[in-house]
Design goal:
It is an enzyme of class 5 (isomerase). The chain has helices spanning about 25-30, 55-60, 70-85, 90-105, 110-125, 130-135, 175-180, 190-195, 255-265, 280-285, 300-325, 335-345, 360-370, 370-390, 410-425, 445-450, 455, and strands at about 25, 40, 145-150, 200, 225, 235, 240-245, 440, 450-455. The chain contains 17 helices and 9 strands. About 40% of the residues lie in helices and about 5% in strands. By secondary structure, it is mainly alpha-helical.
């Protein structure tokens, strides 16, 4: 145990109190409990054991100390506590005094902020290793990959740095300026590909002031360059960078979501020509989906796969919603299309994960094969999905019945596919979300609709009668 010099108790609150139940504390109680947000269920024999979770402990197979953060206040406190963990206890008083002095002295706001920031820096604790690294001009962090940020919002929402009066350097050009000036040989390169493959040329060189040259892990790969149309040079990266962008979802901002995909993955010379006049980003995305270019070349398979999946999900969703809005869908024969949907999965089993979406051709052909009643039901479900995507939460309960061979299973399969397509872009693919569950009372019926039994879905025990 480590003693707390002020209270003569353990600063980690050992021994822990025994508790019959696990209790999550409210914000006020958590602050009074030194930032600990829960009291874990434990016996008196576990008084000297860290907080743990049985499942995580079995997976980690090592010491853990975990606790849930049940509300926003708990998360904010937890992050702030770790960010200021090594700061002096009187830092708050010093900052308050600095703010009071700055307000008394008056002047421009930036001067007041500068005065406060210098006070904070002067009072900051610096560890011995950090001092040694800074004195020896050694890097405080290293990474095997560089990152590049592309602000893929609309042009009017981006920040620009003002240029000096002299126009001798192009350091204030951003990635968009350099991209439109790319050489003609790279005409078909998208902005995302351009950003991760090329970097600006810095005039700084390695010197003795930067540390011992022999300690530097130099890259012996020869440097290659490309020349832009304004005669400036860009260096070809020996290893592609990791692309970082603004994160949009179709729920938060649908227009920005589709525009961000367009500007990153469709080649252009003039960004203003990406969309037609008065055309929405969603309509443009549907019109130009064949031109989308995911990250290619020698970029990691994980990056390629993730980018392609995001694009495929957006295309599938746009195709589904656009097809459902169509009002001139004919009543073509649905027999061949329906049979293909219903019997195209020979490897069906109840434990199978989410199936990949069917092809656009088959999906659209199936919609065209709906009869009038099926089409009305399909459009009703699609309208509710669109309302839900726009934040208009509502519950839709339907009871559908029909005779044999009336197309119930065919329509159900099509609606399930439609739901998957519409909701797929709303959650990161890495989380492997499941948006729809199809269930039936018996295994035979479940097999007919590519679903599961209710016992399997809800993990219900199977009751067996003994005769």
């Amino acid at each position: 145990m480590q003693k707390n010099r002020q209270t003569d108790g353990c600063r980690f609150d050992f021994p822990k109190p025994a508790s019959v139940n696990t209790v999550c504390l409210g914000p006020d109680e958590a602050l009074a409990n030194n930032g600990r947000f829960c009291i874990l269920k434990r016996t008196s024999n576990e008084a000297m054991v860290n907080n743990y979770n049985a499942v995580l402990l079995n997976l980690w197979k090592g010491n853990i100390d975990v606790q849930p953060c049940g509300n926003v206040t708990a998360v904010a406190y937890y992050v702030a506590k770790y960010a200021s963990k090594c700061e002096p206890h009187d830092t708050g008083d010093v900052i308050r005094e600095a703010i009071s002095n700055a307000k008394r002295q008056g002047g421009d706001v930036w001067k007041q902020l500068f005065s406060i920031s210098m006070t904070i820096l002067n009072k900051r604790l610096v560890s011995a290793p950090e001092c040694a690294y800074r004195l020896c001009h050694l890097p405080l962090k290293m990474s095997s990959r560089k990152t590049v940020f592309v602000n893929r919002c609309r042009p009017e929402e981006r920040y620009r740095l003002l240029r000096f009066d002299s126009d001798e350097t192009s350091i204030y050009n951003n990635i968009f300026d350099r991209y439109v000036l790319r050489p003609n040989e790279l005409e078909n390169l998208s902005l995302a590909e351009f950003a991760v493959r090329f970097e600006t040329v810095s005039n700084t060189t390695w010197s003795e002031d930067n540390g011992d040259a022999e300690l530097r892990d130099e890259d012996i790969t020869p440097e290659r360059y490309i020349r832009l149309q304004d005669n400036t040079r860009l260096r070809v990266r020996n290893r592609p960078a990791v692309l970082r962008t603004r994160y949009y979802t179709i729920n938060s901002d649908k227009e920005a979501y589709y525009y961000s995909l367009l500007v990153c993955h469709i080649p252009f010379r003039n960004e203003g020509e990406l969309l037609f006049e008065n055309e929405t980003a969603e309509d443009c995305f549907i019109r130009r989906k064949g031109e989308l270019r995911p990250l290619q070349g020698d970029i990691s398979s994980e990056q390629i796969g993730h980018a392609e999946l995001i694009i495929q999900q957006a295309v599938a969703q746009a195709t589904a919603l656009n097809a459902a809005r169509e009002t001139d869908i004919g009543n073509a024969s649905m027999l061949c299309v329906g049979e293909k949907i219903l019997h195209d999965d020979d490897n069906f089993c109840e434990d199978m994960d989410e199936r990949a979406v069917i092809s656009d051709e088959l999906f659209l052909g199936s919609i065209r094969g709906l009869n009038i009643q099926q089409k009305e039901l399909f459009q009703k479900v699609s309208t509710e999905i669109e309302n839900d995507l726009h934040g208009q939460e509502s519950q839709l309960l339907l009871f559908i019945t029909g005779g044999a061979s009336s197309g119930k299973s065919f329509l159900l399969k099509l609606i399930v596919e439609h739901i998957k397509r519409c909701y797929a872009p709303t959650v990161d693919i890495l989380l492997k979300p499941k948006f729809v569950e199809v269930g039936s009372l018996t295994g035979v019926a479940a097999r007919q609709i590519f679903g599961k039994t209710l016992h399997s879905i809800f993990l219900l025990p199977i009751e067996k009668k003994i005769l």
